[in-house]
## 1
Amino acid sequence: MARAKPHSFFSKRLSRQDVALDLGTANTLMFTAAQGIVLDEPSVVCFDRRAGAGDAKAKATVAAVGREAKELLGRTPANLETVRPLAHGVIADFSAAEHMMRRFAAMARPRSRFGRRSAFTVCVPEGATRVERRAIREAAFAAGAARVSFIGESLASALGAGLPVDAATGSMVVDIGGGTTEVGIVALGGVVCSGSVRVGGDEFDRAIVNYVRTLYDVVLGDQTAEHVKKTIGSALHGEPVGRARATGRSLADGLPRTIEITSEDIADALAAPLRAVIGVVRRVIETAPPELVTDIAGNGIVLTGGGALLGRLDQRLAAELGVAVRVADEPLTCAVRGAGAAAAFAGEHGFQAGE
Ligand code: ADP
Ligand code: MG
């Protein structure tokens, strides 16, 4: 692998007010070298359609974004519409993404003081198409970017996890987000092999909802399922068994019913999506050059993204793949911190980001 030219985008005119942006399916984060993480909110926007219902312009009235809007998901009154603008790592509702980013920039700015001339480094899935990249770039412009460059999510996550991405030795990073799992092997400052599957934390939540409906005849809300996953979720059967109570609507009489769910239930519920995650990691290892496979066997695999926090997922992957697996420190912020660090890294190593 040839090394990129030393005169990269990053080596030019970087300031401590420049912004790293991780516009994720589940969460949006912004980071500046001067202030650290200046925004960390769910990627959700809620529109008030009261003024002229049915009118496209009415969508422009943003009632809430982020945490506040996420609380409204699944419990929105008729005049409000709650939207998640991203799906599977890319923008699905462009106008909603722009409105959300404008608000997020305003929320981040008092702390970060980034100006309208800031350069943004934005994480993108390795496999994003030109059209998908353009949509992400426009969303960054809506947030006040003067210039936008991209960094692949695997490379950003690996950097944020503190892996030696510029070494000749390969490192493997598995990022499990809301809508996708991205797998990459990085070496010499670039991604050598990668793969992704459209399965992540959202799919885990859906699998829990389906499992509980089938087994208990109770329909849980997505957020309840997510809460259960976070508190007692496990990717492996066995001790210790966690227990949680969850309330949903009984299919029998339509009334509220509270059930007890165990971590064993969750391990059963997540069987299919976990198979998909394990499958994509296995495929990337299978297609990697033998030298890199040797490196991974020696160095292990690092998990990033919120999905990495699923209970005993590291143990499950280690058991299935026969390779050491560890969860990165602060997995939810790896990508944005890595994108921020790419600047310094670029200066030292001549790494070049995509256009
Ligand atoms: P994205 O990059 O797609 O925005 P994130 O990396 O922010 O995604 O991860 C969000 C996902 O991580 C959500 O599906 C969320 O439910 C999941 N998650 C967060 N914390 C935990 C936890 N403790 N256990 C299991 N899953 C978690
Ligand atoms: Mg992510």
## 2
Amino acid sequence: MKKEVRVFAPASVSNVACGFDIMGFAIEKPGDEVVLRLAEKPGVRITKITGDQGKLPLDPEVNTAGAPVIALREYASFKGGIEIEIHKKMALGSGLGSSAASAVAAAFAADRLLGLELSKSQLLDFAIIGEKIASGAVHADNVAPSLYGGFILIRGYNPPDIVEIPVPEGLFCTVIHPHTEINTRESRKLLPALVTLEDAKTQWGNTAGLIAGLMKPDFGLIARSLQDVIIEPARKSTIPCYEKIKQASLEAGALGCNISGSGPSIFALSDSLSTARLVGEKMRLALDGNIGSEVYVSAINRRGPYVIEEK
Ligand code: HSE
């Protein structure tokens, strides 16, 4: 067992246009940091949260990082105390899997602290407990990429059937985060309960096409498949300048562009780092200075969470 562990877990882009709730990939930055420390007093306590503007609960039972630690402490039959510090390095409600990154960092750190050596598939169950608190629904398309790294397909949920999809060399991601907040729970209420057979057919063609495009690899097939006829139409009006930003990214050479998770972040995939950078500049210009933003350009993160420091 360790006395203190500091872990980083990456942000992620979920849905990836056509794969609502079943696909996502991790990016290099941003990401959250969680510190866990053994304490004399039994129980789990959150002692500090930074970067959340005071919005996150200090009660560990209803905190996305706290709940997985409580569950892992019980799983390990550990009777001592654990203190948690959460350092948010990305905005809440950004569409970059902020709650998932904290849940993954906490579960990964608790595993190290308690010396459990659980597999990623076991840790996923604990991280999902945290994600469920944030969005009110069990979806693992941020948690799984953040935990495993790389591009992840969740083939099914009962139990989670995680498939790691190979990512071709030369694939880069650009993300723009316009400074507004979208609550995933609310954003899910905008979605249609039923879809037409025609739309379903289009969507599963694109989903299969995207996976095949990544595996072959075939950038043209990836580009043709990055389409969403079901979720994007219902959500795009919640994101400032969405159509303009998407258009600008495609004109700059992106393979495709769509909403990251439930937004407001927007992602684009490109076949080179230089194109991904240009796409970022054009996306920012298209936002028109109406609103502040951050742009992140990175390769797909293949590593997932890691220990920054432990004692
Ligand atoms: N798949 C989820 C959604 C991701 O689109 O609601 C939320 O980040």
## 3
Amino acid sequence: MIFLKTDEEIELMRESNRLVGMTLGEMAKYIKPGVTPAQLDKIAKEFIMDHGAIPSFLGYKGAPGTVDFPGAICASVNEQVVHGFPTDYVLKDGDIISVDCGTEKNGFCGDSAYTFCVGEVAEDVKALLRTTKESLYQGIQKAVEGNRIGDISDAVQTYCEKRGYSVVRELVGHGIGRKMHEAPEVPNYGKRGTGPLLKKGMCIAIEPMINMGSKNVVFESDGWTVRTRDRKPSAHFEHTVAIRQGKADILSTFEFIEAVLGNNAI
Ligand code: MG
Ligand code: MG
């Protein structure tokens, strides 16, 4: 079932998503060679709780037989696509790290992700990041009343594949609201004019996961971490948006990241 949100509910979602954006801005301050994802996770967790919210990912139930998610952020390094644990790995010059963050405040969820460069990153990897981020906005442009989910999917897929990258199939974007994951699914691949109709008040998280090499991924034995099979880098950018007439309303924000990184932002 797809829940449509009232304008009041969308404003509450904007608040949760703004806090996610602020938290990612904090991450931008600390991401550099020598730092560990575990340290970033501690900063994110305290920051979210200090702002009266719940870090939604912490304790998130996994598949049967796997541990609950151990962090407030997903921290996925280099060939890791998503759902990386915040480990004690020491970030080094040239790495990339995708940070995915979720909050719950006033009963509503926020969800946004950004792939950061650690120190000086190779040009071809930066190009992957840039294309993935741009593909997110290509998808967002299609996220308007009267279109279909497939219009978003096609926009992301076409943009990335034209540039020689591949789209992960096993993981998709999603509806979001009182729960982090609601209907409908929002794949990053698909056909125009197909899938659920977009209606005013729908809120969805659009989140391209794009690989430099092949689209194939492997699930690690921890039950969570997803990495590319060929171990080439993968990028992940995500916004939560509300469907409106004419133009999507982006509820999450990269403004706090960009304020920290300035001209070095991807
Ligand atoms: Mg996310
Ligand atoms: Mg999401």
